[in-house]
Amino acid sequence: MVKTSTDPRVRLTDGELDRIDAYWRAANYLSVGQIYLLANPLLREPLAPEHIKPRLLGHWGTDPGLNLVYVHLNRAIVARDLDMMLVTGPGHGAPAIIANTWLEGTFSERYPSVGRDEIGMTELFRQFSFPGGVPSHVAADVPGSIHEGGELGYSLMHAYGAAFDNPDLVVACVVGDGEAETGPLAGSWLSNVFLNPARDGAVLPILHLNGFKIANPTVYARIPETDLLSILRGYGYQPYVVAGDQPMEVHRTLATTLDRALDEIAEIQSRARRGGRVERPRWPMIVLRTPKGWTGPAEVDGVPVEGTFRSHQVPLSEVRTNPQHRAELERWLRSYRPEELFDPTGAPVPAIADLAPLGGRRMSANPHTNGGELLRDLVLPDYREYGVPVGERGEPVVGATGVLGDWVRDVIRANPDRFRLLGPDEVESNGLGAAFEASDRTFLGAIEPGDEHLAPEGRIMEVLSEHLCQGWLEGYLLTGRHGVFTSYEAFIHIVDSMLNQHAKWLKVTRDIPWRRPIASLNYLLSSHVWRQDHNGFSHQDPGFIDHVVNKKAEVVRVYLPPDANTLLSIMDHCLRSRHYINVVIAGKQGAPTWLSMEDAILHCRRGLGIWDWAGTDTGTQPDVVLACAGDVPTLETLAAAELLRHHLPQLKVRVVNIVDLMRLQPESEHPHGLPDSEFNTIFTTDKPIIFAYHGYPWLIHRLTYRRTNHPNLHVRGYKEEGTTTTPFDMVMLNDLDRFHLVIDVIDRVPQLGPTAAHLRQAMVDARQECRDYTRTYGEDHPMVADWHWG
Amino acid sequence: MVKTSTDPRVRLTDGELDRIDAYWRAANYLSVGQIYLLANPLLREPLAPEHIKPRLLGHWGTDPGLNLVYVHLNRAIVARDLDMMLVTGPGHGAPAIIANTWLEGTFSERYPSVGRDEIGMTELFRQFSFPGGVPSHVAADVPGSIHEGGELGYSLMHAYGAAFDNPDLVVACVVGDGEAETGPLAGSWLSNVFLNPARDGAVLPILHLNGFKIANPTVYARIPETDLLSILRGYGYQPYVVAGDQPMEVHRTLATTLDRALDEIAEIQSRARRGGRVERPRWPMIVLRTPKGWTGPAEVDGVPVEGTFRSHQVPLSEVRTNPQHRAELERWLRSYRPEELFDPTGAPVPAIADLAPLGGRRMSANPHTNGGELLRDLVLPDYREYGVPVGERGEPVVGATGVLGDWVRDVIRANPDRFRLLGPDEVESNGLGAAFEASDRTFLGAIEPGDEHLAPEGRIMEVLSEHLCQGWLEGYLLTGRHGVFTSYEAFIHIVDSMLNQHAKWLKVTRDIPWRRPIASLNYLLSSHVWRQDHNGFSHQDPGFIDHVVNKKAEVVRVYLPPDANTLLSIMDHCLRSRHYINVVIAGKQGAPTWLSMEDAILHCRRGLGIWDWAGTDTGTQPDVVLACAGDVPTLETLAAAELLRHHLPQLKVRVVNIVDLMRLQPESEHPHGLPDSEFNTIFTTDKPIIFAYHGYPWLIHRLTYRRTNHPNLHVRGYKEEGTTTTPFDMVMLNDLDRFHLVIDVIDRVPQLGPTAAHLRQAMVDARQECRDYTRTYGEDHPMVADWHWG
């Protein structure tokens, strides 16, 4: 818990304000230097064209505001010995954040070639947004970041995710007023309904109204301030406004306001932690209104720049070729009085350097921001003990996620400080209701009689926003914890774009030596495309897999366990894994259990395999391969295999089931890729393969087009035909049903005789019979609904 | 403009309230009937198992609230002769909306087999959520809908989109309190900053707090009501609360509140349309707090159901097998007193039927909800006049979107009532700044000195929310207008999931005869993956194409124009097209112009073609095919072709450019697919194809795997390698550069001799030289930066 301003060490003095201003000027100077300079970093000589970068890339507009926030947070950290980190919504303001990490020494620790001296400053400037250097955004390369600001909207949810289960952490979060217009950010304010002040840390939102986006004013800066405050109060915050364009005034107001906010946080936490009922407090936040591009050129070529959208990127654009622009840049840089800020070696003068916190208290070195450093393994109950004993093959018929639910319940129990299950109001609906035996849902809103499984102390996160589930979980993982996000399969597309950014983060951090691996982001997708009995076409979309496999192979894994036991094995594997995105798709409705726990473990370890018991090739070369991936396609494939065994006993059918989709790719393309020799052994090099697949059929072609036997591969899958109908009608609509698979076999195995022609017609008739029955009675024909293996 | 309650015809009478309640009971009765009954719709005999559907699918919880809103809106429509439509956020409440469309006769007009009599009622019940019938959500099959409620979050943005440029339309929009938690919905409230009361219609949001989602209470129902109202007021609304669980009381309050809200809308519009300065008014809205599953079973098996989440779907689940449940259902149905509501033939009694509006005033028959009926062609200026005259091949170097901007400007001018350009603060940044010569941006917030191109009268929509741009445009298109959405390529993934739903809508409505085709949804994606000089990795993602091509072939088109003139031709085509999703990707930076306007037209008409002038095969069979799609890949391919012509003049190189990506697919897979014979003629059946592609290379394989020459196809594209660097370094990072393409040719054409080996080494050296130069000087090597064709 944080100290309060009753402590004399916290009180603000005038000398401190001067030092704060100097620090701010230093950070602003370094920000401008990064955008413009290749050499002459201390302006020892007049600026010449050769000192200027050939391509001016970077964003100035937000930098002075970020620098302002940073130095004031530093003051508070030192005064109160705060455990604080910063999430930077306007993450394109990397020059500011990098400047601060250099001032506090972290940048040089992480990148020893960039020392805190003149040579280091030269390199700091040169390498910014320069080929081979650090990118122009607050990317993973920047110490202290868990949030790259390229795609806007996710800062506040990341901040909350970081705060959960970190009671002593204060997460400051700058929200840009541009970002505030996005849906995901607008939907994030209510996160405080899910933050428990006794158990979780604090989030301090700082809404920075600099008034402009790339080319437009922002909405929140142009509605009446009373309206803005009304919104924020309505969301349960106590907003404090700090506004101005006179630095010393703003410094004083911001410092005292920050003190007030941190005092309130201390009071809230102290109240909540005294024991007794935990209630949702009114959390403080800050609305900071300062000019965009503050302290930059007021005008350029007669057009206003400071305080307008024109300062968004590079206010002076022709510095190399236009002497007036160059002179203006020099005036601008010198306005910060660098000679007062840096000593002759180029290092920050002690009055500045001493203002920064030390060691892990620096926001750029806070261990929470390099979550892998804090990561502790989950305590995982032995999943084998949760397995379903298999009697007859295919028995029992169980909901796979329901079986998993028991294990998830015990994972929650065993890890009360480092694991979260999240879902958009779909935990129960996805079959994981057993989890509520271990924990309620976190909820700080009013709880009423008749409510179930709701409590401030709950650990399961349910909110009807896939964005929040994803963003909270990302923040939680990036700060060194673990989690599972369960969603309906179709709607996980809502976070496609967030997945992109997280995948990029994982990809980049694999190559940053000081970034430690974090826990994988685990998706458990249920209520999938084939079983949307209640909801129909709008809920039918298996394309998330396609989206995910476009990401870098090193960071993505896709699993389609065919039954409950394989699902257990896969989820255990996922929760032990590091630095991946794991997508697991499993059904919730009753479905056959095909493999004993022992067989399931072996099968999952291999990722794919021949199911001898289902085929008729008995170790010889088959006539045809029936491949399947996904629970429903597996069911249809096995039913087809049975039909073939019964009606065409002479046909040698091999059944192959794929759990780990990445096994299909060549080993050159994915670390899980099966070597060609093994692929050829399993799938043959010349026999027809009828592949029943859970998703869009083209994906299987895209994964296998380099395989020898690809020309004989025929894939059935979801071809965007759906509605509210019965389960078997759904597979028929997409030609994935057992009867169609038999037809596909007959059409592709040339040597079959008249028995096959007869069988083919019987299959056509069976399809029609099923369709007619369903249209008449509204349910599936007993011959498919009551089918059992064997 | 709407009548006000000073008009005596608008005043509420007690008799009217009774009739309203009867209408509500009728709609509730019909809703329950749809969920449960197969027969015996008027309860002429006691309910028996055979009267019950075998599978009970549907959502009851939201129905009574929707029915309540519907009948009260009907009263207002009749009293005020309103032009009103309804957007139903809780669109899973289809039983309610369908019930109302049947009561007002529209359902029977659209589906003549479902008449307004006992047989029709039987069929109405049977076909709901039944194989072969209408889906369980307010899908496109439901008359009066422009919004399928499966994926939550988009109702309010659709409502605003429908209201733009429809001055006489009032769009009522029920927002569910579950949906309200989503980011996109939370971000929608500010839409009123973009609605001009003088020119646009009105949106009347009705936030329905029934308190629960699937398994949870909702956040907005469980924060203090003062907080909720504070949020809504802050967003510029005047919220009126209607709360209760006593029907007659709620009827009275809702009717008078609705009167008040509609009076205020009338006053706002009248004030704004008197002339003079248009300001952002405080629009009325309604907060409706009624029990979930109101009037349904209070308890089932001793557990509370009405007013809890347990009424979300089917409150009584065992009606076929459990006599108690069946008796409870019968009690429930009879509680609506059907004998008072329907005459002996099964038709609604006159007192009820007469309450509905007539003809096109019925919300279910409002022509705006079947936008194709109102659609008028755009007036399109002759794009050929905007073309760039080509001098030397490749000259001039221009930004393609900048050239297009002039044409877009004139499209805006020529269509002041039916065309909108939308973008997330990226219109200027994407090179379309010329549009502002024709129109300002719509903005009803405060406008300050120094602002540019902002006015309430503006027609260009800019808000930093891809969700809003997409949702507004969908609403606008679905009500019969036209538009273009311009975005950065990477961030259009933010609306992946919205795209899914719109594509489904287009797919389904192709097969609904009474739905007329609407204008296509046109994406102009610029600031694409190859030219993110300022922003780096977070802004680099070309995967939207992959996402789109998974949709039904009949509704998607993807274009990659290689230069300014082809872009003009393509955009003209897209704006004339109907019922598609067109994705156009084009650069904004200076790039060569390859084709004269005349050639561009021919090339775009063909969709792909051999560029004779760039190759050396001169009509003979080539040794190698260089294929390209996208502006940057085209540039690199032509540079590679030039290198080959110069260094290996004996090698016969064919250059093929692809504009219309769908041409690559087999004609069986896509209507634009090239017949195999033509494909073979162009790409040969046995020569190596080196394909330089704009996006992820696997997509080209997925499109072409069935082509004869696919085994010889080698694709270069974006393989997820990026950062902030120079344009040429970006293509080098992904092996798409000219030098690497030459290496690819040499490695794949076996007959080349020692000259080729020498050239290969030169290419390797050139790559290294370029990389070194860039790392040193921060810009591209002059040999690539200053390259010109010829």
From TrEMBL, chains A, B:
The cross-references to InterPro entries, in alphabetical order and at most eight, read: Phosphoketolase, THDP-binding, Transketo_C/PFOR_II, Xul5P/Fru6P_PKetolase, Xul5P/Fru6P_PKetolase_C, Xul5P/Fru6P_PKetolase_CS, Xul5P/Fru6P_PKetolase_N, Xul5P/Fru6P_PKetolase_ThDP_BS
Pfam families attached to this UniProt entry? XFP, XFP_C, XFP_N
**Cofactor annotation:** thiamine diphosphate
Task: Please report the stretch or stretches of sequence annotated as the Xylulose 5-phosphate/Fructose 6-phosphate phosphoketolase N-terminal domain.
Answer: 12-373
Location of the Xylulose 5-phosphate/Fructose 6-phosphate phosphoketolase C-terminal domain: 588-789
EC number(s) given by UniProt? 4.1.2.-
Record flagged with keyword Lyase: yes
Q: Which UniProt keywords apply?
A: Lyase, Thiamine pyrophosphate
Under PANTHER family, the record lists: PHOSPHOKETOLASE-RELATED
Hey, which family's this protein in? Belongs to the XFP family.
| Xref: NCBIfam families | PRK05261.1-2, PRK05261.1-4, PRK05261.1-6
HAMAP family, sorted = Phosphoketolase
According to UniProt, the name of this protein is Probable phosphoketolase
